[in-house]
Design goal:
single chain, 145 residues, mainly alpha, two-stranded antiparallel ribbon, 2 strands, 62% helix
């Protein structure tokens, strides 16, 4: 249940942000460098069927894979571009979908890390003989004042 609330909460906040400021994450480097690089990746792979090794359109041609910045080997870029094209009809929204996906992944990772491995993961007090967690120590400090 907590996971559903977490996913819905992040989705609601991201949706509200996008409604208030469309293309919120499409600024500065994302607009000038990363989106054109992602679109070049997409067009090279999907339209021409070849993997983007060289970019002959910038700097009189340079090794595209050697730089590492364009995200040519990062699958979430292609997922975001595909969803942007399929759902929204425009590749400009891919950066926003990618950023929202990263925020959702960070929230899920934090939830998994907080959950722990056992049934005592949500307990406020540590197990006997265990080193108290930070939140349990803070709780004791507040109660003792």
């Amino acid at each position: 249940m907590t996971l559903v609330i977490l996913v819905l909460g992040v989705s609601f906040l991201a949706g509200a942000l996008e409604l208030r400021h469309p293309n919120y994450f499409l600024w500065d480097d994302n607009a000038a460098y990363f989106l054109p690089a992602y679109v070049y990746n997409w067009r090279s792979l999907v339209q021409s069927g070849s993997f983007p090794e060289l970019n002959l359109h910038q700097y009189l041609g340079y090794q595209y894979l050697g730089g590492g910045q364009p995200g040519a080997l990062y699958p979430p870029v292609y997922v975001a571009l595909g969803l942007s094209r399929l759902l929204l009809g425009d590749l400009r929204h891919a950066v926003d979908l990618l950023a929202i996906g990263h925020l959702l992944a960070a929230a899920l990772t934090a939830w998994i890390a907080e959950r722990g491995t056992g049934a005592h993961a949500y307990a406020l007090d540590p197990p006997p003989g265990g080193k108290p967690a930070l939140h349990a120590r803070l709780r004791r400090c507040r109660l003792s004042r």
